[in-house]
Amino acid sequence: MTGSTAATPIGIHDLAITTTHYVVELDDLANAYGTDPAKFRLGLGQDQFSFPAPDEDIVTMAAAAAKQIIDRNGSQGLRTVIFATESGVDQSKAAAVPVQRLLGLPHEVRVVEMKQACYAGTAALQSALGIVSRNPGERVLVITSDVARYQLDSPGEPTQGAGAVAMLVSADPALLAIEPAAGVYTADIDDFWRPNDSTTAVVDGKLSMSAYLDAMAGAWDDLQAQGGPAIDDIDRVLYHQPFTKMAKKAQAHLAKLTGAALDLALPGDTADENARDTGLATGTLYNRRLGNSYTASLFAGLAALLHHDSDLAGKRVALFSYGSGSVSEVLTGVVQPGYFDADASARFSAVLDARETITIEAYRKLHATERASAEDYVNEVVSKAPFRFTGVSAQARQYESA
Ligand code: CAA
User: Fold this and answer.
1) What is the Cα–Cα distance from 287 to 317, expressed in whole angstroms?
2) Mean pLDDT across the chain
C-alpha cells in the first residue's frame, strides 16, 4: 500500500455476516395472534426473524462476524475497531472492548462504540474511510450488530430481528471502493427511540415511515448538491430495511423524486419489463429472513447483493442509510473486479437454515425475561456460535469462546 494520494481507492475490502441461534417463523406468529399470514409475508415483506438465545447478544454476534474477517485477513495493520449498535449492552463500556479480547486482537488498537439508531453503521464506515485516508497502511474493522426488540403484542413485534455484519475497510479494497461524495440529512424527530431504562424501542410506526422517506429525499438532494452521480449513472440501489417492504416504498419514493423508471418488484412479484432492475429484490434476500438488524440491515442488503449478483464488477451501487431520530445518508461505491465469491450465498443460507425454530410460547417467555443488572446469573449453553455471553458477575457481563 502506498502513501496518501487523493486517487487511492478506499472502501470495503471484506465483509462477513452472521445471526442468532433461534428463528421465529412469522406464519407461526400470525397463526398464534389470529393475524392473516399474508400481512407479514406480503404487507411487510418478511418471512422470519432471528431471535437470540439467552447466551447470545450483540457482542457474541459481532465477534462471530468479525472472526470470519480476521481468519481470512489476519490483523496486520488493524489499529481501530468501530462498533455500531442501537442495542448497546452498557452505557459506558464499548461493546468493541470484549470483541478485542475474544478475537485475540493486539492491545494496540483503539476501539469505540457509535450510536445513532440504525444509521450508526454508516457513520462508522465514514469514520473508517477517514482514518484510512489519513494513513492508507492502516485497516479498520467496522462492526454493525443489533437485536431489534419491540414490545410483545405491539405493531412493531413482527419487525424484530437480529444480525451482525463486520467489514474490513482498507485502501485498494477487494469489494467496494467508496466514492467521495455523500448526501446527508439530519432532522430532530421523535419517530423511534429507546429510553435508558427500556430494553424495547418506543416507536410511532407511521411517523417513522414518513420520516424515513423525507430523510432519504433530503440525503438524495444533498448528494446531488455535492456533485454525486445522477440516478442514470447508478446501477444498483440498496436501502436500510426495517422490513423489506420499506425498501420497496423507498425505491418508489426515489423513482418519484428522480422521474426514473425503477423496478419495484420484491421476490415473488412480477418484474416490470419497462422498469430498470436496480437489485431491489436481490438486496432483500437475507433481510426477509433476518428481520430488522438495525445498524446491520443496510450491510446485510449489501451482502445479499454481492453474494447473489455475479455481474457487478465496475458497477456503481448506492447505499441509503436511515437511523430514526433522525439521520440519513446516501453514499455510492464501485464494485471491484474479482469481488464475486460463488459459495458465499450457499454458506450464509446454510447459517439461516441451521437456526432452531422457536415456538411462539417459548419465544414470548424469553422475550418477557428481564434480568436486572444488579443480579448475578449464569446463562445455560444454547448457542453453537463461536462465542457466548456466559452471564453476569459482579454486575459485569461475561463472555467466552465456545
Ligand atoms: N394481506 C396483505 N397485506 C396486508 C394485509 C393482508 N391481510 N393486512 C395488512 N396488509 C398490509 C397493509 O396494507 C400495509 O401495507 P402498505 O403499508 O403497503 O399499505 C402493511 O401490510 C402493514 O400493515 P399496517 O400498516 O396495518 O401495519 P401495522 O400498523 O400493524 O404496522 C408498522 C406496520 C408501522 C411498520 C409496524 O410494524 C411498526 O411500527 N414497525 C416498527 C417501526 C418501523 O419499522 N418503521 C420503519 C421506518 S423507521 C426505520 O426504518 C428505522 C428502524 O429500523 C426502526
Assistant:
1) 18
2) 96
